[in-house]
């Protein structure tokens, strides 16, 4: 499909897609009785649960981001410079539980970015923008073999990436924000919803636009059909929607029309939990809507391959 | 296949002796808590059960631990003569991020009905549990001084007078030959 599935949904439709995902999850969970237990943590979406691999497990993954389609006001246009960009991002995330309801942590990414322009290419690599976070459990409603939890998270992004590199590795701005994440686990199913807001500040003459994000995830334990005694290996299937909207940046007080925009990705994924101490996971994000403002390279796809290991 | 007793193999005469030893070892020892099971709400995330395992494994006086995800429960086997610290058990579950519910125990001991309460007493005379006069215990024919296997749910004290001392047990099963889970 030209531009992949980018224009499958219109703006109102992508809101409907999120709602449909949530409603489908609720319907499916009603149809299938909670006779068996649930799956692992989602891959792209956050979780309010801060236990086990989600509490004391270091996480890393390789994320490949491919941008190769030039869009102008949502329409594909020819790029006279024939530009495309590939980014390899490897974050290391290490949470630390102060208690089982309060967690702090850091995410430190290593980034390699390559910009191709016809026959030439430029590559920058190094530390990206690191982030610190604190997460607090606000709501916990437990039942037999099910739980509903809500957590609030505060995030600060630090300007640790070299924004003066040939291909910038960071924004150079100190950004901060918060998110609310809810999770409902019952039976073989898990449903997660997340909404986040990041206030982005300035770097030099650039005042970045804020970022709003929303994620929804449905997880289903494929194997085993009945989970009896812990620990046992398990295979989980995920279906996630990851959306974002970024405001235009101001440069020296003037709005840059070729910045910001909105996007919505569908992200199927697989996760194998090998026991009590580790899991591996893979996920692909495909755009169902990618609408950058003005003229910009759009994201064609991303692919993530990762692992989580219990630290202690 | 030749009979065990007609075998000409020199060491096979040891087999019945070993079998007898194994059977003797499997007979419930007098006066001990054999298993403690706590039902746990919220244990829907398999990937986070490790936190529960770590907290329960740190409890003093317990040996083996098994977590049954499907039933939403954890079963601990106390060490020989180990006391049941119910509050400590519930606290460990809470600390692990889950909600503890009822605690059931399976124990063997001597029935002592000489005082105000019916007691389950260990071999060294220590009281393991105070037994509540529920339907099961009332209906059972219990010989004072006899050794019984008892299964029951630990209940909080009914009033301040009943607080302190050994835990109260609402008996759900009692038999001279022991009880099954």
Please explain how this structure is put together:
The complex is a heterodimer of chains A (312) and B (181). Chain A is built from one helix and 19 strands. Chain A is mainly beta and 312 residues long. Chain B has helices spanning 14-26, 49-57, 86-95, 135-139; strands at 32-41, 62-68, 73-78, 99-112, 118-121, 127-132, 147-155, 168-175. In chain B, 31% of the residues are buried. Classes of the chains: A mainly beta (312), B alpha+beta (181). At the A-B interface, strand 6 and strand 13 of A face helix 2 and strand 2 of B. Strand 13 (229-230) of chain A pairs antiparallel with strand 2 of chain B, so a sheet runs across the interface.
List keywords for this structure.
heterodimer; A: 312 residues; mainly beta; Porin; twelve-stranded antiparallel barrel; four-stranded antiparallel beta sheet; 1 helix; 7% helix; globular; disordered N terminus; B: 181 residues; alpha+beta; Alpha-Beta Plaits; five-stranded mixed β-barrel
How far is the N terminus from the C terminus of chain B? 37 Å
**Rg on CA atoms of chain A, Å:** 20 Å
Class of secondary structure makeup of chain A: mainly beta
Give the CATH class of chain B: Alpha Beta
Low-confidence stretches of chain A: 1-38
Count of β-strands of chain A: 19
Short description:
Chain A is mostly beta strands. Helix content of chain A is 7%, strand content 60%. Chain B has one domain: 2-Layer Sandwich (Alpha-Beta Plaits).
Write the layout of secondary structure elements.
The complex is a heterodimer of chains A (312) and B (181).
Chain A lengths: L10 H21 L25 E16 L2 E2 L6 E17 L2 E16 L2 E8 L3 E13 L2 E12 L17 E12 L2 E11 L2 E2 L2 E2 L3 E13 L5 E2 L3 E13 L3 E2 L2 E2 L5 E13 L4 E15 L2 E16 L2
Chain B lengths: L13 H13 L5 E10 L7 H9 L4 E7 L4 E6 L7 H10 L3 E14 L5 E4 L5 E6 L2 H5 L7 E9 L12 E8 L6
Parallel strand pairs in B: 6-8
Antiparallel strand pairs in B: 1-3, 1-4, 2-3, 4-5, 4-7, 5-6, 7-8
